[in-house]
Design brief:
This protein has about 725 residues and is mainly beta. It has a 22-stranded antiparallel β-barrel. A five-stranded mixed β-sheet has the order 3-8-9-6-7. It has a two-stranded antiparallel sheet with strand order 1-2.
């Protein structure tokens, strides 16, 4: 079956990971075989076309860009995604990740975003997610939908959605071997293979990551199997199965006081030595009581897509099984099973002679958790202190309409109706005589209205107004003590957000700029009550406003080459012309400056205790830049910087602050589409002592709140593709 794809270069909009020199060319017709494109996993060019239709902040990250350096953490992958703030807690995968202030107090087991793999949720049914479930090396590209723009995936949260799109046999090498080694005995290895066999294609990856860590008691050891198997049943119908298996062990070094941070950032959180043999006190010693977070995860998912003309229907199914062993103040032993379905229909037929696309979907999820808790006796399990059976149910129905009023202006309207139920049965009540069984229900409606204006073929402007809805996860609801009060009674977090922005390219400049203002009711704010334990409350009214900016500048071109850049735009899968460029070949060398900037103004709004104070835990200003020389042969080299220019508070009362910092790095390497690739990367060259992120409290009283960032580190890697 042959399809015609009409290709035209128009705009660099959402892909600031794209580093190729771009030159406008006349329209070119390209003939491609339909079977060359997967129906279940869109190509990078199709994804760019899709994101360009959103009237708000979006971004796309080409994995080939972050694979040019260390590719271990989500920070490595998302560092240059506009609007995304991500900082590891202790140099590994567990991080604070936030978009527009979503879940900013959560430094563990994420919340406030919807993470997906190929459009199928990675979140557990209660809304939480595990960073270790993601393997950046198996990803072809990453889509970021900020705020209400994530309605495409039925997301309702303030932050939006991040979708990790996998390599398939249609794009992967028959054999790919990658090895990385670096400071703190960090080792990373991956072996993968992909191929097409008639109507069948496969991709399989085995990876290992281990590190001793910058700090004491911060060893990490992870193994992952990832595979997907696709079958083209007919030219219009394809099904694909995804299998993920993760075994991850993580030591937890804990927070330090500012004095401890400045004196020795490599130390773990300890109690005085003469108290370490006393069990009630030793529980607070991260080393003596062996604080860890280990789990085994198995995830099986399927996506099936049928497409005929203007009609497209897809279904997503997933089952996630997780076994968690988590010694902290007590030992948490959880066995969970989560199930979900996503049914989605799209119709791109013209309406009243105008371009139009209707999307509607239904996404129910259900999760079951057996939560057992034991005393922590010097790192071993003691007496049982809790046994709860927890269930989470979510029902999300969403609808969205893209209607082009004129060829250059689209009106986007949509909404989502959501229901969530959290229920806990206390199976320990018969032992201690206190019954903490409880359940809570939440309803929400999240409308959205947006406008997209294609000002020129290479520039867009947009605005939107939306509502968001976020019920609490069990991380917020679980009651730390058996006191008969059941679950913590919390109201769902809701917000009204207005956004305005522009994106595009003009000659040597490519930009993405958005301003948003969110009026939030009953924000879910967590604060530390003692090491390892947090308490969540509804904050009343808060304000989140900010700027999400990215700017790429080609400072110089043709320094050592003399050639013409060449690009070729691609069409989306439905035949609609893409407005995002695809670089086919770069024939010029260049010196490019890539920059992202965040302004985060998150504050209370007339709180009875804290007035209009800034919300703690996230810097108001954040800047990341890279100056890179790129040669079309694949060579690249240049410095980079990360800068937090001002201090920021770690308590709501604004009495204690994390200090500003600046980090300098450097990267050099050679990357080839086939054959041999190599890189060397240096991080924190000045060996700056700083806090990468912090826990938060209401009022500071000498607590240990600071997570030290890694010191000076050097990393190198080799890769061979055949």
């Amino acid at each position: 079956m042959t399809r015609h794809f009409i290709a035209a270069f128009t705009l660099a909009a959402t892909s600031f990971a794209q580093t190729d020199t771009l030159t406008t060319l006349p329209t070119v017709d390209v003939t491609a075989t339909g079977e060359d494109q997967s129906l279940t996993v869109p190509s990078l060019e199709q994804a760019r076309a899709e994101l360009s239709t959103q009237p708000g902040g979006t971004a796309i990250i080409d994995a080939e860009q972050y694979k040019r350096g260390r590719a271990t953490t989500l920070k490595d992958a998302l560092d240059f995604a506009p609007g995304v703030f991500v900082q590891p807690r202790f140099g590994a995968e567990e991080s604070r990740i936030s978009i527009r202030g979503s879940g900013i107090q959560r430094t563990f087991h994420g919340r406030g975003l919807k993470l997906l793999q190929d459009g199928v949720p990675l979140n557990l049914a209660d809304g939480s997610f595990d960073f270790q479930a993601v393997e950046p090396l198996t990803t072809r590209y990453i889509e970021v939908y900020r705020g209400a723009n994530a309605l495409e995936f039925g997301a309702t949260t303030l932050g939006g959605a991040i979708n990790f799109v996998s390599l398939t046999g249609r794009e992967a090498s028959l054999l790919d071997a990658r090895f990385e080694y670096g400071s703190f005995e960090t080792f990373r290895a991956q072996l993968s293979s992909g191929a097409v066999l008639g109507p069948f294609d496969y991709y399989v990856s085995l990876s290992h990551f281990s590190t001793d860590g910058f700090r004491d008691h911060s060893q990490q050891n992870n193994q992952r199997l990832f595979a997907n198997f696709g079958y083209r049943i007919t030219p219009e119908l394809e099904t694909r199965f995804f299998i993920t298996y993760t075994q991850t062990d993580s030591e937890l070094p804990g927070e330090l006081t500012k004095e401890q941070l400045e004196d020795n950032p490599r130390q773990a959180s300890r109690v005085p030595q003469f108290l370490r043999g006393i069990q009630p006190v030793a529980r607070f010693d991260y080393v003596t009581s062996n604080w860890k977070r280990d789990f085994e995860l198995l995830r099986i998912a399927n996506r099936t897509t049928w497409q005929s003309g203007e009609h497209r229907f897809s279904s997503g199914l997933f089952w996630t099984h997780k076994n968690l062993d988590h010694p902290i103040l007590f030992v948490i032993d959880q066995l969970s099973n989560d199930f979900g379905i996503d049914l989605r229909y799209e119709n791109s037929a013209d309406l009243f002679g105008h371009r139009n696309r209707l999307t509607l979907g239904f996404a129910p999820t259900h999760g079951i958790v057996e939560d057992n808790r034991f005393e922590n006796l010097f790192g071993n399990r003691g007496n049982r202190i809790g046994d709860q059976h927890q269930t989470s149910t979510n029902l999300d129905f969403y609808l969205q309409e893209h209607f082009y009023l004129v060829p250059s202006v689209a009106l986007v309207a949509g909404g989502q109706i959501s229901y969530a139920k959290r229920k806990s049965n206390d199976d320990f009540a018969g032992i201690d005589g206190i019954d903490n069984s409880d359940s809570q229900d939440y309803w929400g409606y999240s409308p959205k209205l947006g406008l997209l204006w294609e000002m020129t073929p290479e520039a867009q402007a947009f605005l939107n107004v939306s509502r968001s809805f976020e019920p609490p996860s069990f991380g917020e609801l679980a009651n730390a003590g058996n006191n008969g009060t059941g679950l913590v009674h919390l109201t769902e977090q809701t917000a009204t957000t207005a956004e305005i922005g522009t994106r595009g390219r003009y000659r040597r400049f490519a930009w993405d700029l958005a301003y948003y203002h969110a009026w939030i009711d009953d924000e879910l704010l967590e604060s530390q009550v003692q090491p390892g334990l947090t308490q969540t409350t509804n904050a009343g009214r808060t304000i989140h406003q900010g700027i999400e900016a990215a700017l790429d500048v080609d400072l110089f071109t043709d320094l050592f080459t003399r050639g013409d850049g060449e690009t070729l735009a691609a069409a989306s899968g439905d035949g609609k012309k893409s407005v995002l460029p695809m670089a086919r070949e770069q024939k010029k060398d260049r010196l490019v400056l890539r920059q992202v900037y965040l302004w985060n103004d998150f504050h209370f709004d007339g709180d009875a205790e804290f007035g209009d104070n800034q919300l703690p835990g996230i810097p108001e200003h954040y800047y990341r830049a890279e100056l890179l020389y790129e040669h079309p042969c694949g060579f690249y080299a240049g410095p980079n910087v990360e800068w937090v220019p001002s201090k920021y508070n770690v308590d709501s009362a604004e009495t204690e602050f994390a200090d500003p910092y600046a980090l300098l790095g450097f990267k050099i390497g050679y990357r080839s589409e086939r054959g041999f690739s190599v890189f060397f990367e240096a991080k924190n060259l000045t060996d700056k002592t700083y806090a990468s992120t912090t826990s938060v409290v209401g009022t500071f009283n000498g607590q240990a709140l600071f997570f030290p960032g890694d010191g000076r580190g050097f990393y190198g890697g080799l890769e061979w593709k055949w």
